[in-house]
Give the backbone structure.
Amino acid sequence: MAHGDTSGGFEKTPGWLDWYDGPSTPTFRVPEGAVDAHCHVFGPGEQFPYAPERKYTPCDASADQLFALRDQLGFDRNVIVQATCHGADNRALVDALRRSEGRARGVA
């Protein structure tokens, strides 16, 4: 991967973990009103390019994937934290917040 590549492309390194699209539902119920207090959205790189100066390139993990995981795990809300791989470009975070239907807050 060249750090100048902002397209979202990446090369896997040893130990890389792919996005797992089949998480199991917990065997317990989380408390009503529970909040996932630290999560990220990554890209998608085609829409929200990664910063040229980033130290890593993640696999894309969209707002839709985050919200599906939130619902599967039983959380009511999210606090989405700006990912350093996006640098100072907060568009992916802002997009996720706008699409959260009021169920997320953000930290830039």
Summary: The mean pLDDT is 88. The two ends are 26 Å apart (CA to CA). Residues 38 and 61 are 14 Å apart (CA to CA).
